[in-house]
Amino acid sequence: HILCLEAPREFSTNPGGARPIGARARGKMDLAAICEVLQATQLSDGALRSAAEQKLNEAASGSPKQLVAALATVLAGDVAVELRQEAAVILRQIIAGTTRESVWSELDEQTQRALMGQLLSSLSQDSSRPVRRSVGQAIAATARSVAEDLDELTLNWPELLPALSRFVGSECETETRVVALGVLKSLAETMSDGFMEKAGQLTAMLTATLQDASPEVRAAGAQLVLQLVESLEAEAAAPLAQVMPAVTSCLQGFANEGIEEPLKETLEALIAAADAEPEFFKETGMEALWATLLKLCSCGAQAFSCVKVRHSAMEAAMSLAVGLDGDFSKPEDQALLEQLVALNVEWMLEVEEDVDVWLSEGKDDDQDECDDEAVRIGEINLDHLAEEFDEDILMPLIFKVIQLALQSPTATWKHTRAAVMAISQVVEHIEDTAWVDRCVEFIAQNLNHLHPRVRYASFWGVAQVSYDHSPYVQETHHETLLPAILQGISDTNIRVATSAVHAFMSLGEELDAEDLDPHMDDLLTKMFQHLADGQSRVLQENCLSGIAILAEAAEELFVEYYGRVVPMLKQIIQNATGEKDRSLRGKAFSCASIVGSVVGKEMFSADAHEIMQVMMQLMLAGFAGDDPLRESCHEAASKMAETLGKDFKPYVPALLPGIFTILQQRPEEIDPAEMPDDDDDDERDMSLTLVGEKVLGLKTSVLSEMKEALDLCNMLVRSLSDDFIEFMPAVCQNLLPLLDFRLSEDLRERAFRSWELLAGSARAAVEHGVAEMSVLQELVGQFLRTVMAAMAEKPEGEDFDQAALGLMKARAMGVSGVIRKAGEGVLTKDVVRDVSAVILQVLASLDFSEDESREVPVRRGAPVSDEDDELEGDGLVSRQQVRFCLVDVAGALVHSGRDFFIEIFLPPLMEMVVKLLRPDGSELERSLAFYIVDDIVDSVSDKSIPYWNGFMNQALQGMVDKSAMVRQYAASTIGHAARQPIFAQMAPSAAMQIHRVLQKHGERHRRRRAVKADAKQNALAVDSCIKALGYICEHHEAQLGTDAGTAWQIWLSNLPLRYDQDAGQRTHAQLLGLVARSHPAVTSQEQLPKVLAILADVYETGFSTTALDREIASTVSRVGEEPLMEICSGITEKQQKKVKQMLRGAQAGA
Questions:
Q1: Cβ atoms 406, 415 nearer than 8 A
Q2: What is the pLDDT of residue 1149?
Q3: Residue 1007 clears pLDDT 80, i.e. is over it
Q4: Separation between Cα atoms, residue 872 and residue 749, nearest integer Å
Q5: How far, in Å, CA of 758 to CA of 754, rounded?
Q6: Cα–Cα 20 to 30 A to 168, which of 267, 615, 825, 1133?
Q7: In which element (H, E) is residue 350 found?
Q8: 367: exposed, middle or buried (Cβ count in 10 Å: 0-12, 13-18, 19+)
Q9: What mean pLDDT, rounded, does the chain reach?
């Protein structure tokens, strides 16, 4: 029996007697009043519409029963369609709780039952299709409110399922059947298991709907099937396999009949199902489905009036391929993958053919928006496939596809362009240098193609591969690429010239001065000419960036060009004052600051002060949020401060107030009802966070400005060093509130690093007699009191969500950084005790769980940097990352006061390690344990020996653990322990374990560049083993016996280290020390070329240090010219150039 809610007699239907919606007549709401409010929600007048919505919100909060009854009466009444539909929409919202908490629990049973009956009545009887659709959505919301599963739904709303079953039947109207199927689809999202308890009845009903004459019914049935597949586990969904051929037939029928909307919606449902349960489709035999999707993808752009049909078909095919990547990688199924690659390359042919249109539309922004969207989709899809599939499977298929396309009699320049772009899209994910070489060669052969769009794409490809595979491409292919780029910069097509300059920007960053020297004058002349011609702003801006890169790469060779470059830059700064020229002017500021840093303070000083005067006027006047000049000025000022050092001090008093003003901006509370829509431009420029029950927001452009201001402030601290002490009180006052900044993890981490720099500056002031130790102690004390108190507080909800993890990680990194920079003698014993207690407390509260992320934590002791790519950003933070950062505080305490640490913190830490290494411990527990002992063995050396029995044998076994992260820190622990004499008894066993690792991973480690996260973690573990082997060889050579020579040879053959910079710097310093002591293992006649090659490879890279570079240069220079020339004959040309750089460095330092 269906209950109908009749219009209460008490309701007044006289519009003239309408009262406010909140008014009541014997507990009922006035029908005219509710209709009047519903009409107002339809108005275009924003103020009247908002007032009506406010009345509805007040009624939902204060009189939910009366509001629901009134809305149900509207549904039942003889009122306008628009009002009935709006009533259904509002019912759905207030029951589902989309704008506020659901009112369902506030309704009495009578009102609930009456509403249920009216909704079912309206679904079957309302004359309007839109109303019935909205009613269906309200029914689904109501069903989810009364029950969590199908059994509970049957108990609490017994009329629903029988009614839906009747409505789906063929005797009902098409629209009623479609809506009923839609309700079942909505319920299937959360109640799918219950549906399958009567699988026979379900599949019979689905079979009938999939064969119905109405395409709308067939589409709704197919979407219900796919929703069930998406929601169910693969085994539970197995009975649905019998209806999948009918689903495929529906897709084919829709396509053949040109029924696009049902086709598009069903494809979208297929995408969701394939993403969730791809294995289901494999088990149901997907040959027909795959063929259907490929046919839809192969249709031309004009086949469907709605482009999303074809796009959805491609997305569905991609979802299946990626979800079933293991199957598609099998030799027997690679033909499917080849078909998909070919289709995407084919889509990339749909480019604008008119060169003039392409040129005019992209001249000033260098974008290809004139091309069909299919081109971009094809490019993105190839990138995705390269990310998912092994290169040895995908790359042969890509080259096969493009070669067949190019050999076709109908091939045009569009096929060549598509081939080049296909290679450019996948090259990022390649590891094997042989494939890199082949990609570069293919791209390079098209740099002189007759068609400008091919040349443009080829130079774009050079830029991509140079960036993705730096410095390999620069070292191996610069002799081919650089002359071609020079020619391209002079191309008569401005967009090609722009792309060529962009290619130089990527290639030039890792070129040596010797590589550039023959081309320097030509490069500058060509770029100067483009700057003077002014044919394209983006070309001019690229030229300025190219000049800056050229200066940095050329180093001292650029000095002779200074007199030509800087006057030109000053002229641009002076003249580029128009609104459209602000980005160009900013690039000129940046270029000048970089050129100045290359030539040095003495040459640059006068021009620097002149340029700074112009910049100061702009910075003091302030910038608009979207002003491109803002970021350039901040970066240029930072660079000039770095170059001028303490000579920059006169500008600081004027800069700091503006910096403080920017940093004092705070998020404001935002009313959820007034939040912008997803498609609103304001939404994309708004960063939001939830604090308690409040939504806080701040414009993203404001956050960017705050980051830039903080970066500038940090550079001022670095540049002035101890001279910054007089500005420190004001800076500390303004930075302290940022330590609890909730809206941006990136900004918060920068703020903590600022305190680290301030501690270092104060330490320098104390050491130089500029400040008393009490100043440093007060700064560190103020910081630790604030941060440690916050760390000791339990997070809201007694658990660590993402916000709490991010905040704890930033605090731990900040504490360890500040303590390290403060140095010895600052922390008292009581402070060490307090800090230790809090760290142990937080570590104990971070329970381990099986589903926890295994993301690689930040390496301890990472250098402080404000570069974006060295910051973690606002990504997800794992609990293990936080644990590692907390343990880093322990390492910092060692450097602050070794004796206090050993007495207070070491014993409880070792107790924790023993617990973590219990036999049934997890991978995460083992990796944390070895991370702890690695640092302790390294930093307290012999004082750790009493604890070795608790972890050293486990570390020996950990070197071959299945987890790469465990291997990394276990091997590092073994290496640090090897420096102790007592390790002698373990040395042979440890060397054997390392030999096993290098036998398994060494060849791939040397040959391939690790790209993906798991490959990088494996590479870090191998680096740790190589470092450990070096320490074993040096300190326990005698224990290795007759195997010592082999061990030394293995160590040298695996150098240099290429992934772990900290380990690399220490290992390469060890190698140089052995050379300096004339150790025969590294200074024999046959080993010297190898050793020199290693030192050349690491010289002036991140795997060396400034001090080590000086020692390398000095050591090499002492060899003597004639012996050095003989040794150099056995190394590469690139390495020989590095040796020349060493000799110049030694002369400069003499």
A1: yes
A2: 67
A3: no
A4: 9
A5: 6
A6: 267
A7: none
A8: exposed
A9: 89
Contact 254, 262 (CB under 8 A): yes
Q: Is residue 694 within a helix (H) or strand (E), and if so which, with residue range?
A: strand 694-699
> If residue 577 lies in a helix (H) or strand (E), which one and from where to where?
none
pLDDT at residue 410 greater than cutoff 50: yes
Q: Identify the residue with better confidence: 1081 or 191.
A: 1081
- The closest of 1145, 1047, 1057, 1051 to 1097, measured between CA atoms, is 1057
- As a whole number of angstroms, the distance between CA 753 and CA 742 comes to 16
Please state the length of the chain: 1150
pLDDT at 693: 65
> What average pLDDT does range 1056-1084 have in this prediction?
94
The CA angle 817-820-824, to the nearest 5 degrees, is 155
| Better pLDDT: 966 or 623 | 966
Say if CB 22 and CB 59 are below 8 A apart.
yes
Tens digits of residue pLDDT in 627-661:
889 899 999 999 999 999 999 999 999 999 999 99
Cα separation, 867 vs 885, whole angstroms = 20
Query: What does the block give as tokens for 934?
Result: 């690695």
Two tokens at 88? Answer: 């259904």
Q: What is the per-residue pLDDT for 196?
A: 85
Specify the pLDDT at position 678: 52
Please, which contacts does 953-960 make with residues 24 or more away whose CB atoms are closer than 8 Å?
Answer: 954/917, 954/926, 954/929, 955/930, 956/986, 956/989, 956/990, 956/993, 958/926, 958/930, 959/990, 959/993, 959/994, 959/997, 959/1025, 959/1028, 960/993, 960/996, 960/997
Residue 551 in tokens: 């200066």
Phi, psi of 366 (to 5 degrees): 55, 40
For range 114-124, the mean pLDDT: 93
Cβ contacts of 981 within 8 Å, gap of 6 or more: 1035
Q: pLDDT at position 850, please?
A: 65
In 137-248, at which residue ranges do the beta strands (DSSP E only) sit?
none
CB count within 10 Å of CB 618 equals: 18
Write out the two tokens for 1150.
Answer: 């003499």
The DSSP call for residue 691 is: E
pLDDT in tens, 204-245: 999 999 999 999 999 999 999 999 999 998 788 999 999 999
Q: What percent of the chain is modeled with pLDDT above 70?
A: 93
Residue 28 has pLDDT above 60, yes or no: no
Write down the pTM of the prediction. Answer: 0.81
Around 222, how many Cα atoms within 13 Å sit in the side-chain half-sphere?
31
Question: Helix 129-146 vs helix 174-195: angle between axes, to the nearest 10 degrees?
Answer: 20
**Closest of 833, 829, 832, 787 to residue 812, by C-alpha:** 787
Higher-pLDDT residue of 1074 and 684 is: 1074
- Strand locations in 804-962, DSSP E? none
Q: Are 397 and 342 in contact (CB under 8 A)?
A: no
Q: Which of 752, 721, 718, 747 is nearest to 736 (CA)?
A: 752
Give the pLDDT confidence of 8-22 residue by residue, as tens digits: 323 222 333 333 344
Closest CA to 663 of 633, 634, 702, 625: 702
* Number of Cβ atoms within 10 Å of the Cβ of 614: 15
Q: Do residues 857 and 884 make contact, with C-beta atoms less than 8 angstroms apart?
A: yes
Order across the sheet with 694-699: list the strands: 668-669, 694-699, 686-691
pLDDT(1016) > 70: yes
Name the amino acid, one letter, at 1025: C
Provide the Cα torsion 258, 261, 263, 269; round to 10°: 180
